[in-house]
């Protein structure tokens, strides 16, 4: 007998019948069955403490159990998984006619804290963008440098980047692909939900893109060169439109070669674009438009990163952050201590 089935033997008959149903009819893996068993054992203990059998528990009891788990330090994600197991059991019991309704249906886990988006510091982002790859592979270096500039300089999603065409066309419109206009220094992209937006391109990004276009126009000597995609802005070694996976791989390699401690992925550069713009401008609406967010609530996530940066600056520099007022023997206030890094009188 497996460990899961041995543990399940401690459960009430209806719970054991459900686990047998999950094993035979749903063909769940042994690991999944073990998790379901642990969820039901936990529920059975809660029910015993409440003095009720499993099938007489109501939503109020399950909410109380959820609150107890949360107060005990269990994560919101862990609680959500446990509730999912309970809902499965009660849904089965309702189908069997053992209960009238599923008491776990409306019970929700606590909302998980939204993690801060990961972003590079300004110095790290600039170091990555200015990193020069091997001179002997000018084709790949020009392409990767242009991709970094568009990801960081324009805040593009990786899907938007690989979907860019050399120019606007009927195919671009029908397929929902974007394109670049180097003369106007802008990229037109189709984001989530098919929303089109125009993103300005800085001079550095435009210069990098011009260098890549010069390399791309040269005779293509790699295998499959005759099949060079005539529309795609960024292509791989065989001439086909580049894939998001290749962008991830090349960006990781470039960040390691540039000496960055954290392996960089495309969305990290998008986060860095948004965070650094907010630090400089504070214009949340403008950043929302540039990122193509449908809701400003999504963009507001970056203000937490910006606040952390501002809080660090305040702690390091503001006279009132670490007040060290001194008073002379006569009782006169000598004023706050000088800001860190500020010149001292007489030196």
TrEMBL record:
Catalytic residues? Answer: 157, 192, 267, 270, 293, 302 (o-(3'-phospho-dna)-tyrosine intermediate)
Chief place where the protein resides: cytoplasm
Q: Keywords on this record?
A: Cell cycle, Cell division, Chromosome partition, Cytoplasm, DNA integration, DNA recombination, DNA-binding
Occurrences of domain Core-binding (CB) (ranges):
9-94
InterPro entries (UniProt xref): CB, DNA_brk_join_enz, Integrase-like_cat_sf, Integrase_catalytic, Integrase_recombinase_N, Integrase_SAM-like_N, Tyrosine_recombinase_XerC/XerD, Tyrosine_recombinase_XerCD
Q: Spell out the molecular function terms from Gene Ontology.
A: DNA binding; tyrosine-based site-specific recombinase activity
Q: Which HAMAP family match?
A: Recomb_XerC_XerD
Protein name (Swiss-Prot/TrEMBL): Tyrosine recombinase XerC
Q: Which organism is it from?
A: Melaminivora alkalimesophila
Q: Which gene is annotated as encoding this protein in its UniProt record?
A: xerC
